[in-house]
Amino acid sequence: MFRVNIPRDRLGIFKPVFLELLSEQTDKINELSFKLYIKGLTTREISDVVLDIYGKSISRTIISNLTNDLLLKVDQWLNKPLESEYYAVYIDALRLPIRRDVVTKECFYIVLGLRKDLKREILGVYQLPEEHYSCWNDIMKDLKKRGLNKTILFITDELNQIEKAIYNNYPTALIQRCITHKK
Predict the structure, then answer these.
(1) How many CB atoms lie within 10 A of CB 17?
(2) How far apart are CA 62 and CA 60, in angstroms?
(3) How do residues 131-157 score in pLDDT, each as one tens digit?
(4) Residues contacting 95, CB < 8 A, separation 6+
(5) What is the pTM (predicted TM-score) of this model?
């Protein structure tokens, strides 16, 4: 029979080094699992990679739970409340290749705000198939719903009817073309 003496302290802040190492390894496994999931690996493939690298078996259910937790955090960020006023809001859409069954290009709408304290903040990233007036109008409605009530200036490209989408939701805002599109 072995007897283990566990140190005690009055403040209760003693932590065994071994447990800290295990915690760090678990965090690394979780991070690796999520990165592999984002790259498109299946839960079974991720489990095999973790077994090869760490010699530790991780179930597909655990991997699914990890990715679901992180996707929940992403959703919370996408729906976070916004400040009521921004000096300027930059809006644009990028067409990026996306792999589903085949690789196609889809639009990612990016909205960046300049706060009153002059700090920049990403207000939203939206993925929609094409850049179109109705998509921008839906995005403007979402910004309004999340708390953006007023902005002095929208900086945008020359998409047809983008001004209409802005003025429908922010009638007092000014619109400026970005320098690249002005040239």
Answers:
(1) 7
(2) 5
(3) 888 889 999 999 999 999 999 999 998
(4) 105, 106, 107, 108, 131
(5) 0.67
